[in-house]
């Protein structure tokens, strides 16, 4: 079974719009790589603005060189660099030994200078990917930057729109933000809308690790075009607490998920809002997963709920595993909001966002030790969010909450099943 | 939803994942029709919810509010219902077409300079071939003609200096020194 679902409670109220939560987990099959795998088509886009001087640029170049070494002749790659201007250092080429050697020479010519036209650098990288696009493997642009987009297209919404449009056309984007000065909201948004991943690299020495890991994941993708579909009766409202895009098509709700790598486990919390009903009546919803690659099991799983009296509702048992996932998702959303408010200088608002979510979790935590611990941590954070926070802390908080909402681990990597 | 199929502002806001304040703001802005009833008794219906969801979707697509307003004004309730319930159309153009369109917008020269290409000759060095010009060592031509430009500075009736602007402040100072020095040298009497 590829999708598993569990519900927090089984009873809903008859004369109240109850919210109930479902924890859905999609597990990609573990595929042993014996020889062939789908090819990847990548572009590496490297920021060479002045601020990349010092350790960052040499480490980035070395990391890209190392990543290219992992590709086969069936794969393709390109190298683009930008500051206020954009150069295609190496056009999209198949990853032959000759190309790897040309890449080594080409990378050596990149030196730090100028300001940062992130938009055009990134789009130029996407164009190189598009030139080599065959539509059968992973077509992805990888962007490394330590700065803000301060030239060319700098509007966050415009760049995000381009990212989504390119994702719809088969080219995804992953972003790496290095150090304290980059705009994490922009870098995160491009990756989120672009169907790729976002990594916060606090220390330049981690650059090779992160790039190697992302390229490794691209090589390990087994399911593309993945979506969870929830079908229910009219007026049953479905929403997802993650940050994945949702389409509503009549009584069906489609939640689009990122590409899954071999053995990956992706969990998300789905919120159902029930219509009024008659006590004793049942209401059901069907959950299934699909992917363009056809490797996931499309079996439909149905969950049902029953309209109960107020007293029955109050007394019903709760699935604490679901409660914990719900609490984690709401806490992550509140932290992202608090980071945004910190950026705007609204420290009281940031504190309020954290306090609000702590209060809501406490209301259902009961005697559950893990939920109580979550409340305690949030209570401790209130004080921190009430005053201006250093940039590195804001970036770390934003990165961690985004990872929680995307079902990735604290370092931004996918969660995988332990090997059998 | 109450038995008559309407929502309170809190119910409507929760369903569309916005705050009640946002709902009131959209009503004040004319993006949403006014509810029936007033104050705590105000009721909203399915049409409100669909419209609110469409606004949210357009916002998630990062459309500016003015554009959202324009779109909503041009749509009937039936059209809104059709859009909200219809799956998004897959794009008809390729990623390459899309990129060429945005990268080509408002610009004279489109191709970025290519420094290395496999199975393609390296661009020949263009400078240093014409007599009487002092060319600073530069990288290949600018990819963006409308963003930076070459200025010709006459140092002598027979000698020109080409400078690509804008320059950073330290570069600008160096170029100023270079011009001064070059003019001094060129003005020296032949000995």
Care to describe what's here?
The complex is a heterodimer of chains A (420) and B (191). Chain A has 420 residues and is an alpha/beta fold. In chain A, 37% of the residues lie in helices and 27% in strands. Chain A is built from 11 helices and 18 strands. Chain A has helices at residues 56-69, 97-108, 118-131, 156-168, 184-193, 207-219, 310-315, 320-343, 347-365, 369-385, 391-405; strands spanning 3-7, 11-13, 19-27, 40-47, 76-82, 86-94, 138-145, 172-178, 195-201, 221-223, 226-231, 237-240, 246-249, 252-257, 260-261, 265-273, 282-290, 301-308. In chain A, the strands form 4 sheets. Chain A has a 6-stranded mixed beta sheet. In chain A, strands 6-5-4-7-8-9 form a 6-stranded mixed beta sheet, sandwiched between helices. Chain A has a 4-stranded antiparallel beta sheet with strand order 1-3-16-12, with helices on one face. The longest helix of chain A is centred in the last third of the chain and has 24 residues, at 320-343. Chain A is globular, with a radius of gyration of 23 Å. Chain A starts with a strand and ends in a 15-residue tail after the last helix. The mean pLDDT of chain A is 89. Chain B is of the alpha+beta class and 191 residues long. Helix content of chain B is 41%, strand content 10%. In chain B, strand 3 (149-156) and strand 4 form a beta hairpin. In chain B, 13% of the residues are buried. Mean pLDDT of chain B is 71; it is low at 106-110 and 119-147.
Largest sheet of chain A: 6 strands, mixed
Summed over residues and divided by their number, the pLDDT of chain A gives a mean of: 89
Cα end-to-end separation of chain A: 16 Å
One letter per element, helices H and strands E, the order of chain B comes to HHHHHHEEEEH
Uncertain regions spanning at least 5 consecutive residues of chain B? 106-110, 119-147
Mean pLDDT of chain B: 71
Secondary structure tally, helices of chain A:
11
Strand order of the largest sheet of chain B: 2-4-3
Q: Largest interface, with Cβ-Cβ < 8 Å?
A: A-B, 57 and 45 residues
H/I helix tally of chain B: 7
Q: Which percent bin holds the helix content of chain B?
A: 40-55%
The residue fraction in helices of chain A comes out at 25-40%
Q: C-alpha Rg of chain B, in Å?
A: 31 Å
Strand order of the largest sheet of chain A: 2-18-17-11-14-13
The shape of chain A is: globular
């Amino acid at each position: 079974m590829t999708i598993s679902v569990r519900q927090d409670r089984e009873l809903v109220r008859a004369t109240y719009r109850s919210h109930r939560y479902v924890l859905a987990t999609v597990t990609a099959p573990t595929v042993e790589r014996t020889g062939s795998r789908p090819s990847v088509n990548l572009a590496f886009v490297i920021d060479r603005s002045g601020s990349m001087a010092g350790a960052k640029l040499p480490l980035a170049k070395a990391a890209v060189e190392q990543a290219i070494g992992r590709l086969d002749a069936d794969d393709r790659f390109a190298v683009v660099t930008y500051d206020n201007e954009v150069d295609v250092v190496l056009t999209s080429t198949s990853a032959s030994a000759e190309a790897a050697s040309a890449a080594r020479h080409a990378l050596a010519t990149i030196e730090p200078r100028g300001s940062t036209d992130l938009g055009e650098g990134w789009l130029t990288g996407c164009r190189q990917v598009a030139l080599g696009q065959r539509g059968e493997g992973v077509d992805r642009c990888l962007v490394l930057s330590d700065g803000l987009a301060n030239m060319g297209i700098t509007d966050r919404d415009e760049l995000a729109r381009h990212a989504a449009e390119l994702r719809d056309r088969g080219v995804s984007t992953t972003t790496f933000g290095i150090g304290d000065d980059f705009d994490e909201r922009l870098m995160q948004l491009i990756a989120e809308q672009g169907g790729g991943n976002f990594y916060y690299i606090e220390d330049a020495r981690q650059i090779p690790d992160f790039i190697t890991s992302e390229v490794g994941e691209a090589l390990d993708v087994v399911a593309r075009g993945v979506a969870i579909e929830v079908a229910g009766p009219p007026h049953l409202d479905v929403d997802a607490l993650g940050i994945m895009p949702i389409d509503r098509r009549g009584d069906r709700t489609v939640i689009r998920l990122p590409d899954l790598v071999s053995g990956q486990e992706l969990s998300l919390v789905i919120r159902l809002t029930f219509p009024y009903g008659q006590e004793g009546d049942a209401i059901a919803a069907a959950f299934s997963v699909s992917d363009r690659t056809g490797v996931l099991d499309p079996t439909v799983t149905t969950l049902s709920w029953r309209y109960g009296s107020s007293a029955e509702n109050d007394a019903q048992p709760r699935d604490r595993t679901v409660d914990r996932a719900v609490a984690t998702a709401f806490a992550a959303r509140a932290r992202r909001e608090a980071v945004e408010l910190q950026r705007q200088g609204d420290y009281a608002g940031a504190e309020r966002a954290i306090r609000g979510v702590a209060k809501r979790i406490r209301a259902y935590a009961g005697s559950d030790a893990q939920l109580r611990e979550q409340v305690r941590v949030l209570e401790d954070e209130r004080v921190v969010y009430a005053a201006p926070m250093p940039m590195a802390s804001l970036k770390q908080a934003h990165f961690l909450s985004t990872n929680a909402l995307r079902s990735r681990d604290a370092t931004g990597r996918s969660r995988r099943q332990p090997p059998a | 939803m109450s038995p008559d199929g309407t929502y309170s502002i809190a119910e409507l806001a929760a369903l569309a994942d916005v705050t009640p304040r946002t709902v009131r703001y959209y009503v004040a802005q004319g993006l949403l029709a006014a509810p029936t009833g007033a104050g705590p008794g105000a009721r909203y219906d399915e049409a409100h919810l669909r419209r609110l969801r469409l606004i949210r979707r357009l916002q998630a697509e990062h459309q500016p509010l003015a554009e959202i307003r324009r779109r909503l004004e041009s749509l009937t309730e039936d059209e809104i219902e059709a859009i909200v319930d219809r799956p998004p159309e897959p794009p008809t153009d390729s990623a390459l077409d899309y990129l060429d369109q945005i990268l080509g917008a408002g610009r004279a020269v489109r191709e970025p300079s290519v420094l290395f290409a496999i199975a393609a000759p390296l661009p020949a060095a263009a400078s240093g071939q014409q007599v009487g010009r002092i060319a600073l060592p530069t990288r290949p031509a600018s990819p963006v003609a409308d963003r930076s430009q070459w200025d010709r500075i006459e140092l002598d009736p027979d000698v020109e200096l080409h400078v690509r602007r804008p320059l950073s402040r330290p570069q600008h100072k160096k170029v100023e020194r270079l011009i001064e020095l070059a003019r001094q040298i060129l003005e020296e009497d032949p000995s």
